[in-house]
Request: fold
Amino acid sequence: MALASISLRGFRNLEPTIVGFAEGSNYLFGPNGAGKTNLLEAIHYLATGRSFRRCPDSDLLGFGRDVLIVSGTDESGATAEIRFDGREKRILRNNIPVEKLSEYFGWLPVVVLLLEDIELVCGAPGIRRNFLDMALAKADRRTSTDYADGQRVEHQPKPEGRRQSAEGRMPEPDSHHQDTKTQRSGEEQAEERAKSEARSQRLEVRSEEGEGAEAEAGGQKLEARSEAGEQAKSEAKSQKPKAKSEEQSYITLMGEYRRAVHQYNRLLERSAVSGGRSAEELIAWEEEVVRAGVPVYEARLDKVGGLLENAAKHYQRLAGHGAVFSYRSSILPAGTRSEIVGGGSSQAKTEDSPPERSARGTVPVFASAEELAGAFRQRLATTRERARALRHALVGPHRDDLRITRGERELRKFGSVGEQRLAGIALRLAEADMILSAGRQRPVFLLDEVASELDEERSRMVLEMVAERGQMVYAAARRTVRPQVKSQSAKGKMQNGGQDETLAVRDSASALDHLTTGALEHFSGKEFHVEAGKVSEVS
Reply:
C-alpha cells in the first residue's frame, strides 16, 4: 500500500506543506541541510510513531513551534495523524484515537536504507539485534490494529485487566520518548536524550503501561515465592516453557522477555552487593527467563532462516560472490549443529567447519521447545557465577547476534567497505521480503544517499530491487542533467556510426551522486526540490 500524501506542520525545519507522492518512485533533491532527510524522517514517524534517528519527540518539534502535526493518507484512502505539543502525544487512525503504540506500529510498513546501514555489518551486536527485532515486528500481522469504517478491529485479543490511557492517548515508549503526561524542563529533556543514547541498542517497540504493571506484579509474586528457596525452585520449574502463541505479537513477547531479564538482573545486582541471595532464588528467576524467552526464540527461528537466506541471495547478486549469513545464539556453544537454509539446500554442519563458497544462511536447530528450553536453562546455569559478578544475564535472545562471513573471515572485521555496505543493503532488502512474505502490504522504501558510494551498475541494481518490492522515496544532495534520449533504447543510448553512444550531460559535481545520471533514468516518478525547509514538486 503506497503512501499517497503527507501533511506537515512544526516538524523540524520543514515548512508547513502537503506533499503528494507517486505510487512508484519519488526523488528528493536539494543542498545539504535543506531538509531532505527530515522529510524521510517525517514519513517514518507517520508510519511507526517514532524517528529512525532514535530521538525523543521533543527533538522533532521545530524551534519556535508550539505543536507538531504529521498526517497522511495511503492509496486506499485510509488516514493517520500524529500530534505532539511538547507534553502530550495523540495518534489517530481514520480519525479514531489509538491507545497503544502496538496498535499503530506497522500500519504502513517502511524500510529505511541509509549510508549508516554499514553499521548493520561492522557495528555492535546490539545494532543487529535491534534490526532483527524491528524487522520481525514489522512483518507480524498481529502487531497492528485495523481502524476502518469508524470501528476498531483487533488483530489480537486484549488481555484482561490492561489499563487504557486516558482519552485514548498512547503512552510513550520507555526507551526514547519522554512522558507525555508530565511537562519536562529543558534540563530534564537533555538528560533524557543522554539516557536515550545509552540505551539505543534496546528494542524501541515496547509493550505499554498495562502490560508493564501486570509483569511487575507478577515479578513481585515470583520473587516472593523465591524467598522460600526450594519451594520457589519447585514451583518455577513446574511451569512448562510457554509455547509460541498465535495470539501474542512479537512486540508483546519481547516485552515480557525483557521484563523477566530486568527482574533477573536486579536480583543479580542485589546478590552481588549483599551476597545474601541463594542459588535457589537465582534458579527460580532463571526459569522465568526461560519461560518468557522460549517463545521469543521460536518466533525468531521461525522467520530468521528466510531472512538470512534472502539476504545471502541479495548479497550474491549485488557483490558477485557469496557469503554466509548466520544467526549465532548465545545459548549454544561453538560447534553446535546448525541447519543450512540458503542456496536451496538443507543439511547439518558445525559452525566451526569451513563455510561454503556460495550464498548461505544458517540458523540453530532445535527438535522441540523443550530441547530449546533445556539448552537455555543449561547455559544460564553454566554462566550464573559470571553473570552474578557482572550483574547481568549473559545469555538469551538479548545477547544473540547475526554473523556474516566470506570464506573463513567475518565481513565485520575483514570485509571491504564496499562489501560491508552491500551486505547492509542485502539485509534491508531481505527485511522487505519478510514483510511481503508475511502477507503485509508492499513497504515504502526510504533511501537517503544510499547509492552515492556505489558504482552506477550496482546503483541501478539496488533501485531495480527496491522498485520490485514497493514504493520508493529517494533523497540525494545533487542531481545532474538526465540523459538526453533520442532513440527508443531503454538505456539512453543511440546508434551513431554503428557505435553506441551515451548522450548525457554531467555537471562538475556529478561524482557526488552519479546515481542520478544513469540509474534513475529508468525509473519514472515524481521529483521534488527541497531547500531551506521548503518542498516543491518539479514539473
Observations:
- The two ends are 25 Å apart (CA to CA).
- Residues 155-190, 192-239, 342-357, 480-518 have pLDDT under 50 and may be disordered.
